[in-house]
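Comment thread on ticket #2218

A.B. wrote:
> Attaching the input chain for the structure job we discussed in standup.
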Amino acid sequence: MPDMSFWDHLEELRWCLFRVIIALVIVLVGCFFALPYVFDDFILGPTHPDFFMYRLLGFAYGPAEKVDIININVASQFLTHISTALWISLVLVFPYLMYQVWVFVKPALYPKEIKGVRAAFAGGTVLFYIGCAVGYIVVFPIIFKFLTQYRIGAEVTNQINLNSYMSIFLTMVFVMGLVFELPVLAWLLGALGVINKKQLKSWRRYALVVLLILAAVITPTGDPFTLMVVFIPLYLLYEFSILLCRNPKDEDPEPDESAA
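C.D. wrote:
> Ran it. Output below, let me know if you need it in another format.
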């Protein structure tokens, strides 16, 4: 492929962004019209006592009865409709976004690097979706149950606002999606020589403490089960990051001391 000037690279980047935006707009329109048919069962699923995750665990995990979500602002339902459709569109377009990033960076890679970077993009996409699924199925229902059942006083009742519910829902789902990108980040930093496998192994004991604190923050309950439900995936991600981390210095042959 002939060398490209700075302006050629900028033009290629512009077209990649343009294609992503067009795809996002198309998916956004589809999500906007489809959302009313799935909002009650999918977005508000954790508010129902028969949510499939509650039934799967087989004990009093979810709310005892349906939690009603109220709206107190005139425009909130319309704005929530738009913002939720946008966030769902971003999730659905994410693979295409990763593909366009791959198309843009591929010409700058050496042949031996293409296979590894392609796998990183594909793996990052899969891990993002797994993280979002864990956030939706496990993390958010745990937090939602705790917050809706928490009482500072017997005379205070909870009325959950639509904006408050959507804010926590979207935050938890997307934060978990991003957290699951940790192995890909470790692979990238290792390839750049910033970290290596030996360092990650030596940091394991500190990582355990940090991950336990992070799990405790995500699940502010005193229940060891819910803490472990969040902590175990985070710890497995760290171990997976160690497996993926590849530093060029790690592959250098050890010096032959006998030759000295």
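A.B. wrote:
> Thanks. Noting for the ticket: The beta strands are 69-70, 160-161.
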